[in-house]
């Protein structure tokens, strides 16, 4: 791995700086490798080399409210069409089977009668009445004409007013109204969405629809809400690997598996232990953006979702720079890329401390190597941070465009790409439990054992010779 060459290619401006991702250790050089397949080098209109990371194929889909409704409607329609049942009955089935269409089909075609009895979709009424002109309501016990009574599939009759009261009360109680059954205590017949639309007022219909929409996310094993405060997006996970990092449209990054903030390179169990250990709000969690802990509140996006760099864009930094340098904001994307990379890398660094804390005492070699890699990462990230903030300031106060800004552009884009590559390799190494160290130790022991055996044989030979010589004398 030519780690120094990679660094010089990305940053010719300060090629004489040492110590950043240097190749001091054979094993460490792997973390500075830059696979050509991971990056694209393009040239913009001004002849500036643009280093861009290739976007990996996403293993998740972020869903807005409209997307959720569309998917829900598609599933309801699909089940209704395949099983030749009403949309209301289809919704009841999907609710029972947690919106898993394949499970609905499998269970239905395996034993339709059992499924119907289980969810309350009775094939025919369980109570029959003679052709009398009036029937008694099962709640208020008053007689009504048949036209003023309504029943579920079971046939138990109730007047319109009692149905309205029953449904209103159920919706007020909460999401349990989605699995509503016949008011008769002895009956398990399902009350579907068609009855809700018939008897509920507009406000209750709206509440019911919200409950139904939320159930599509919360009861679905592959979909979860974004945990960011105020966010109403959901994330559907479609991957089959253990990388659960997702980024919502609201810019909040979190682990889909445990819904905590993204925490690579440590696993969810380590995060749980670490959070319990640091249950109180503490100072070791606020260095993500090098700002004071007291400044992290709802105004900045929350204690664990500081958006300092997003705020910088909103305060007009990009607009001001665009005006001074005479470039459209689209050509200044390298700045936001650098800022976002800094945030991501600081988050990784924060969780490396949890990784190091749980390394056991007998893993001294791993701990030493880990501390070296962590130190290199901190140094490199600090260099990117200095470039993205301090070296940017002169250009914000300049009188007009300059050649130095083009050089700054190339330098910062290169630093961003190299830092991204280093941290990605670092994360993979820690997730792999620093297996390079184990391989190195195994190889070292084998070599030492071989050399020791050879020396041992030679030693015994010499000792025997000396003994023999003494005997002869």
Mean pLDDT: 79
How many E-type strands?
11
The termini sit apart by: 61 Å
Element order, helices and strands? Answer: HEEEHHHHEEEEHHHEEEEHHHHHHHH
Q: Into which percent range does the helicity of residues fall? A: 40-55%
Describe the structure.
The longest helix is centred in the C-terminal third of the chain and has 38 residues, at 435-472. With 473 residues, the protein is mainly α. It has helices spanning 3-10, 65-83, 87-96, 101-110, 112-119, 160-173, 193-199, 202-218, 268-277, 308-314, 317-325, 333-357, 364-389, 393-396, 403-431, 435-472; strands at residues 39-43, 49-53, 60-63, 134-136, 143-145, 149-150, 158-159, 223-225, 234-237, 245-247, 253-255. The two termini are 61 Å apart. Helix content is 51%, strand content 8%.
Question: In a few lines, what is going on in this structure?
Answer:
The chain is built from 16 helices and 11 strands. The protein has helices spanning 3-10, 65-83, 87-96, 101-110, 112-119, 160-173, 193-199, 202-218, 268-277, 308-314, 317-325, 333-357, 364-389, 393-396, 403-431, 435-472; strands at 39-43, 49-53, 60-63, 134-136, 143-145, 149-150, 158-159, 223-225, 234-237, 245-247, 253-255.
What key phrases describe this protein's structure?
elongated; 473 residues; single chain; 8% strand; disordered C terminus
């Amino acid at each position: 791995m030519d780690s120094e060459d990679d660094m010089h290619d990305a940053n010719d401006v300060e090629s004489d700086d040492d110590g950043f991702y240097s190749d001091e250790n054979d094993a460490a050089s792997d973390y500075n490798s830059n696979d050509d397949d991971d990056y694209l080098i393009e040239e913009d209109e001004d002849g500036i080399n643009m280093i861009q990371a290739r976007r990996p194929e996403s293993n998740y889909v972020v869903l807005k409210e409209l997307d959720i409704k569309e998917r829900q409607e598609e599933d309801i329609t699909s089940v209704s069409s395949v099983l030749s049942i009403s949309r209301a009955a289809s919704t009841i089935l999907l609710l029972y089977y947690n919106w898993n269409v394949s499970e609905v089909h499998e269970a239905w075609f395996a034993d339709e009668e059992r499924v119907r009895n289980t969810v309350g979709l009775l094939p025919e009424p369980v109570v029959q009445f003679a052709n009398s002109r009036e029937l008694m309501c099962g709640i208020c016990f008053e007689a009504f004409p048949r036209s003023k009574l309504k029943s579920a599939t079971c046939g138990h009759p109730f007047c319109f007013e009692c149905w309205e009261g029953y449904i209103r009360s159920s919706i007020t109680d909460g999401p349990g109204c989605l699995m509503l059954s016949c008011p008769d205590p002895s009956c398990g017949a399902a009350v579907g969405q068609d009855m809700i639309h018939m008897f509920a007022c507009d406000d209750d219909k709206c509440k019911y629809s919200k409950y139904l929409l939320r159930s599509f996310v919360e009861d679905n094993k592959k979909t979860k809400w974004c945990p960011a405060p105020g966010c109403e997006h959901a994330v559907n996970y479609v991957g089959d690997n253990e990388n659960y990092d997702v980024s919502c449209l609201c810019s909040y990054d979190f682990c889909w598996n445990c819904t905590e903030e993204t925490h690579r390179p440590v696993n969810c169990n380590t995060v749980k232990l670490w959070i319990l250990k640091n249950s109180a709000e503490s100072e070791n969690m606020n260095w993500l953006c090098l700002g004071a802990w007291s400044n992290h509140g709802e105004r900045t996006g929350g204690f664990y979702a500081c958006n300092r760099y997003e705020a910088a864009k909103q305060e007009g930094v990009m607009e001001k720079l665009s005006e001074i340098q005479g470039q459209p904001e689209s050509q200044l994307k390298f700045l936001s890329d650098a800022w976002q990379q800094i945030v991501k890398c600081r988050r990784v660094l924060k969780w490396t401390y949890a990784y190091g804390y749980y390394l056991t005492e007998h893993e001294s070699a791993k701990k030493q190597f880990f501390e070296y890699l962590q130190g290199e990462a901190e140094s490199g990230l600090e260099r990117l941070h200095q470039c993205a903030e301090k070296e940017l300031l002169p250009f914000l106060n300049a009188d007009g465009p300059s050649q130095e800004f083009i050089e700054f552009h190339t330098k910062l884009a290169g630093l961003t790409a190299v830092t991204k590559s280093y941290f990605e390799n670092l994360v993979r190494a820690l997730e792999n439990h620093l297996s390079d160290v184990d391989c190195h130790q195994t190889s070292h022991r084998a070599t030492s054992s071989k050399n020791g055996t050879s020396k041992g044989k030679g030693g015994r030979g010499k000792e025997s010779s000396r003994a023999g010589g003494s005997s002869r004398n």
